[in-house]
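Pilot study result, target chain (96 residues):
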Amino acid sequence: MTREGFKYEAEARKPPAPNMALLYLATYIKSRCRADVKIIEMGAAQCSHEDVAKRIDEKLPDIVGFTSMSFNIGGVYHLAEKTISFSKKIIISFVS
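Predicted structure:
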């Protein structure tokens, strides 16, 4: 295997980074509203939709934002429905 092959193999093992749009939004909200903002990157945190739903149910935040790629939009939609079932007051936002 070439040096380049090792480089790409090492890169493939790194956990995914949070979506940049969410990071910008979180930074803006923190600077303007002094709100407590949490970002859960499911891939990096190695958590399931059920784990995220449990965290949302425990915290009952004012706003929940989701990002998704086309392959997992169904799971995110299901998670949004669960979020609404916890409290109809939670604002849900989808960011691309």
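One observation from the pilot: The mean pLDDT is 81. A full batch analysis is planned for the follow-on phase.
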